């Protein structure tokens, strides 16, 4: 089975950890994940400067491990990324910002990537706050 995962929950929200656990379980069960798409406050998952408290789960690193281990695409919504200050090198230059903070393994793109994932998937699952 092919899954498209959409996350709108910020990293500190309970549903954010549920999203990671669900995605990990799908992959562990032999299913494929077409793409994980982060929008709204969830774009913070792709901020390499995101530093969770000592008693919180570091989801950015967990997503990066899934991406590296299973080849899962981690896509950050460009409109939300700009609003929340998550920039790749290209957008930092375009918007004349001094640096970028997109974590390794994440990419910035538009809603077309979510629509494409939904078309390719057998199941679309959304985790919101």
Question: What attributes does this structure have?
Answer:
single chain, alpha/beta, Hypothetical Protein Ychn, Chain: A, 38% helix
Helix count from the secondary structure assignment: 5
Cα separation of the termini: 26 Å
CATH architecture designation: 3-Layer(aba) Sandwich
Q: Could you give me the name of the CATH homologous superfamily?
A: DsrEFH-like
Summarize the structure in words.
38% of the residues lie in helices and 20% in strands. The protein has one domain (2-127): Hypothetical Protein Ychn, Chain: A (3-Layer(aba) Sandwich). Helix 1 (14-28) runs parallel beside helix 2. The chain has 129 residues and is an alpha/beta fold. It is built from five helices and five strands; from the N terminus they run βαβαβααβαβ. Strands 4-3-2-1-5 form a five-stranded parallel β-sheet, with helices on both faces. It has helices at residues 14-28, 59-70, 78-84, 89-94, 112-120; strands spanning 2-7, 32-38, 74-77, 106-109, 123-127. The two termini are 26 Å apart.
Describe the structure in brief.
This protein has 129 residues and is an alpha/beta fold. The chain contains 5 helices and 5 strands, in the order βαβαβααβαβ. It has one domain (2-127): Hypothetical Protein Ychn, Chain: A (3-Layer(aba) Sandwich).
């Amino acid at each position: 089975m092919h899954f498209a995962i959409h996350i709108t929950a910020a990293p500190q929200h309970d549903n954010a950890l549920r999203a990671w656990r669900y995605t990990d379980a799908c992959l562990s069960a032999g299913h494929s994940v077409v793409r994980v798409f982060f929008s709204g406050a969830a774009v913070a998952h792709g901020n390499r400067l995101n530093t969770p408290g000592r008693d919180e789960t570091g989801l950015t690193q967990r997503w990066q491990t899934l991406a590296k281990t299973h080849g899962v695409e981690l896509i950050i919504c460009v409109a939300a990324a700009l609003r929340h200050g998550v920039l790749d090198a290209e957008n930092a230059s375009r918007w004349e910002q001094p640096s970028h903070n997109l974590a390794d393994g994440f990419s910035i793109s538009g809603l077309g990537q979510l629509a494409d994932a939904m078309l390719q998937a057998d199941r679309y699952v959304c985790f919101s706050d």
